[in-house]
Amino acid sequence: MSIPEMQWAQVAEKIGGPLVYKQIPVPKPAPDQILVKIRYSGVCHTDLHAMMGHWPIPVKMPLVGGHEGAGIVVAKGSLVTGFEIGDHAGIKWLNGSCSECEFCRQSDDPLCADAQLSGYTVDGTFQQYAVGKATHASKIPKGVPLDAAAPVLCAGITVYKGLKESGVRPGQTVAIVGAGGGLGSLAQQYAKAMGIRTYVDFTKSKDLVAEVKAATPEGLGAHAVILLAVSEKPFQQATEYVRSRGTIIAIGLPPDAYLKAPVINTVVRMISIKGSYVGNRQDGVEALEFFARGLIKAPFKLAPLKDLPKIFELMEQGKNCRPLCPGNAGVDMRVCHTRVLVEPRTQV
């Protein structure tokens, strides 16, 4: 395949932006990397946090953001054996890891101290061509549409990992907080596909604790709670409606928020509180397999890459859903699960 020397990309040249749509060199794959011609990239709230420097983790500047990129392998390094030219591949948040530390040896590579993060510590997928370590890239079956698969590469894998971490079994119950959003809608679908019963926090609930407990067998509460909210209060409420010996999984990342729980209640009811980060390589394989079988669907809206600053602006205002969901001009972003995808192949 013919690979150009230059490409179009959205570049944050400093913390806080603005984004600059310009041409930059096409990266060359290292011996253990693949070069992917990005056809679609999901836009995640994490991308906005990265550009704005909201998190206490050093971010690369200048930066090409994005970490939900789906496309076609057009070049590969000399050590790569798992991909061939023309294969479909996904570039995820975890772009690479050291493969040598204790965490990597135990398949906990997301916890690697030297992990490379797409669109955060290394350039990501808001460009026409992106590189990633072949061992961490996801192979996407040829029959799977690349646009629909893009959101699974981050949002899907993240919630699937959280459900696995909760230890909840088929037939048991899980409460999904923030179920109306992009992560939450996928969490519901994965839970259903895994045989798990879901109880959801809709924003209209008048007494969340009582209603969740009443909806569960014997009124004992949910076996697990998946916290996907972007505000702090739900993280404080969860111990009130999880059942004894239940598990609370924190996934959402509201800035400057804290987890708090009554010590006596937590101890005597043997409640577990855990954080869940992104999935490892096998989690990615499994999450995509559910999608390939037609069990997971993520509604999306396409936009050209040059419109990314506008998308970020709407995201910051919580208004992305209004121009993106036909017939729902007044809908609140908190209860909308339409995903925005940008198309890096659009040049001007």
Describe the structure.
- The structure is a single chain.
- It is built from 11 helices and 16 strands.
- By secondary structure, it is of the alpha/beta class.
- The strands form 4 sheets. Strands 3, 4, 5, 8, 9, 15 and 16 form a 7-stranded mixed beta sheet that branches. Strands 11-10-12-13-14 form a 5-stranded parallel beta sheet, with helices on both faces.
- Strand 10 (173-177), helix 5 (182-193) and strand 11 (197-201) form a beta-alpha-beta unit.
- The two termini are 22 Å apart.
Give the helix level as a range of percent.
Answer: 10-25%
What is the general shape?
globular
Order of H and E elements: EEEHEEEHEEEHHEHEHEHEHEHEHHE
- Beta strand %: 25-35%
| Average of pLDDT | 90
Structural class: alpha/beta
Radius of gyration: 20 Å
Number of helices: 11
Strand segment tally: 16
Largest sheet report: 7 strands, mixed
- How far do the termini sit from each other? 22 Å
- Provide the low-confidence segments as ranges: 321-336
